[in-house]
Amino acid sequence: MPPNKPLPDGPGLRIAIAGAGIGGLTAALALAARGHTVTLVERRTAFSEVGAGLQLSPNASRLLTDLGLGPALRRVAGEPARVRIRGLASGRTIGEVALGAAMRERFGAPYLVIHRADLQTILLDAVRGRPGIRLLVGRAATGFRETASGASLTVESAGGRAETLEADLVVAADGIRSALRARLDGGALRPVGAAAWRATLPRGQAPGALQGDETGLWLGRGRHVVHYPIAGGERINVVAVLPDRRDEADWSAPGDPARLRAGFADAAAPLAELLAQPRDWLVWTLADRPAARPMARGRLALLGDAAHPVLPFLAQGAALAIEDAAVLAACLAGAPVPQALAAYAAARRPRARQVQRQARRNGRVYHAGGLVAAARDAVMARLGPARMTERYAWLYGWRPAEPTGA
Ligand SMILES: Cc1cc2nc3c(=O)[nH]c(=O)nc-3n(C[C@H](O)[C@H](O)[C@H](O)COP(=O)(O)OP(=O)(O)OC[C@H]3O[C@@H](n4cnc5c(N)ncnc54)[C@H](O)[C@@H]3O)c2cc1C
Known about the structure:
alpha/beta; single chain; disordered N terminus; 11 helices
């Protein structure tokens, strides 16, 4: 880890961000681009995102491109041509969603798939290369306080040493189990009775029918599977969601492959073959809670999963965190901090709630059985690829109220 950079005195605000995940890193870049001075505090000491992929829809890829990350993204991200939706047991194609050129032409930005580690590296490289951002790792944010002249963030190192960072405002981007969220909203996380099993495998090990440049979505009663190529097309990312009653706190708890296979014993041949390949699965118990109310107050703002976790049935959690970052930076241009944060909260909470609702609805639709599943399949087949994409124009076509470029 390079030594901490001294920060130049700038005309902008001093901003402390807790959490250097996708949201915190993007916020640091968006805020520094507007002349603010950012201290980014991360609990972890190493940035290893273990074996998992991420879909980046146009509403998010557009903002990362605005921050100058387009060329780096293009080098490592893939752009699948479509989502092919199949019955989990029958293997029959139910419908398609047009991605690729159709997304780019319709929404002016690509629908990308990327390895999380690659995205994290792109963001970290940009953060380390930008004057005005200081990254402190191995420190956990533990407390926030408003002071006479601003705000302070208490951080603790693993050895127990505490320090206080003075700032004009604090952004809590510390993830789904945020330590700082309780300052604004005490609502608890609620497990939803399902878990996401995640693994990657070399593309060549996947059944031939599943090696194409497309995203596969397999729907069954109470379960679904998503897979797509990542890492420059060299690996395939697999996410399998099935019922689970545990309440794991650790997002990287290892899963027993035999248990996964039992959960998909009725899967169609190519899917069963795909799921049989990876030996190492990580299990993420899915939990939910409403968007924080308020999302910001005084000199504290919540951002990303800390503010509004999104169930992974719409692939929008990271995208919303990226949107939050852009809107926060735009709101802070000129207005006094408390008013700017109130405007941020007012702009973001309705959008976050809409996306959360749609993700929950998708979960119910994906996991339906019987007549409801038959009706779903008929609608998907009738709509066709272009209209399946168009249903999400409100989501993918979103843009911040003003340009966010650096
Ligand atoms: C199975 C699955 C698939 C998904 N697929 C997609 C997808 O395809 N597309 C998409 O957009 N989203 C997806 N998501 C959601 C996405 O992963 C999250 O919404 C996104 O990572 C949230 O980013 P964040 O920065 O808010 O939080 P995080 O990425 O969780 O980052 C929080 C950071 O804060 C740090 N931290 C925690 N506590 C402290 C503290 N006290 N002090 C300092 N640092 C702290 C953590 O170490 C971490 O680095 C998926 C989620 C799951 C579970």
